[in-house]
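Support request, please re-run this one:
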Amino acid sequence: MGTGTNTARESAPAARGDRTSDVVPSTGDVLTTSTLTAWAWVRLGEQHGIALAEICDAAGVSEGELRDPDGFLSQGAANRVAELAFARVGPGAAMLAAELLDRGHFALPELVVRSAPTVGDSVPRACEVFPLLHRGSQLVHELLADRAIIRWQCPPDLVVHPAYIELVFAICVQGIRRETGHDDEQAAATWFQHDGPSSAAEHQRVLGPVRFGAPETRLELSAATLALPLLRASASAHSSAISVANEALRGVSAPLRRRS
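Re-run finished. Output below.
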């Protein structure tokens, strides 16, 4: 599952989310990946013997920079960390990592999503705030009569490690379980364009039905899942979170629309 990226350390630290530049000046690498998401590999490493120093070395940043919740890594750095986790833990690394993140880990984006009334209301919100966690790729929401489809769209010149894409979808499904109280809830279907492992048992356990080598990368949620209420829904918290998220998204993405 390698990406063919340069394994050399970067000379620039992780950029903070409030910087105006989205590029590491010394290398020209695009800053794409929030350290909040990259921290999933740290949690995984704690259980599988991957030292934090190894992860920092792969990313080319210090421990303090990796711990900075406002920081962003270049895509090359994020890919190297994902490859380290995949190589040491195996093809189920992303599934295991998603289950280790604490509730509230994603702060503002998570508050926007989990304070919505239902899963169906939260899905488009998740797509809207995704640029706060990953720049360059998009999650695109399509609502159909019997299901919703969330597509991962990425420009061809931006190479994202497959394990990172798997991690994002696993986090989505894990979030649905936590916020609805339905611990066995799964996606109706998950497609990945990349090739899969010889056994997809771990992916099926976390996500549900999985197809690798598919025409596109997407997550499908059934109408029944979309109708589930969120346990921590709050109209006031949702409204306030949207206001703050719009400020954070300024210059990064289109503003969030207020829904009735």
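The chain has two domains: 15-98, 107-226. Confidence is low (pLDDT under 50) at residues 2-21.
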